[in-house]
Design goal:
The protein is mostly beta strands. Helices cover 11% and strands 58% of the residues. It contains two helices and ten strands, in the order βααβββββββββ. It has a ten-stranded antiparallel sheet with strand order 4-3-2-1-10-9-8-7-6-5. A hairpin with a 2-residue loop joins strand 9 and strand 10. This is Fatty acid binding protein 2.
């Protein structure tokens, strides 16, 4: 499937501002900007296995499209939500357990690049990944 493979972050746009709005302190934001994130995605029908590897943690996430699951960000923020396919995009909506606000995420493949867009409280950030 299009998302299958290992993706390494190459650059980010507006990521610091996004993390600030998420409530992440300046020290963690500076570290987060250089997390060397690698995402390995394997899709089998509606089941996705995602391995996230960064400077700060390694985590395996398994989810089925359209089914809610729990997830925590690298800073410890806990979320509950789901991913769905909309055309050729993976679209996620995740509610923060601490304040009930929604984080939206979109993963889209364009050429040899995966673009991940985050939106929270009206602030949008993008991270660009290249296939490793």
């Amino acid at each position: 499937m299009a998302f299958d493979g290992t993706w390494k972050v190459e650059k980010s746009e507006n990521y610091d501002k996004f993390m600030e709005v998420m409530g992440i302190n300046i020290v963690k934001r500076k570290l987060g900007a250089h997390d060397n994130l690698k995402i390995t995605i394997q899709q089998e029908g509606n089941k996705f296995t995602v391995k996230e590897s960064s400077t700060f943690r390694n985590i395996d996430i398994v989810f089925n499209l359209g089914e809610n699951f729990d997830y925590s960000l690298a800073d410890g923020t806990e979320l509950h939500g789901q991913w769905n396919m909309e055309g050729n995009k993976l679209v996620g909506a995740f509610t923060r357990k601490d304040n009930g606000k929604v984080l939206k995420a979109v993963r889209e493949i364009t050429g040899d690049e995966m673009v991940q867009t985050y939106t929270y409280e009206g602030v949008e950030a993008k991270r660009f990944f290249k296939k490793a």
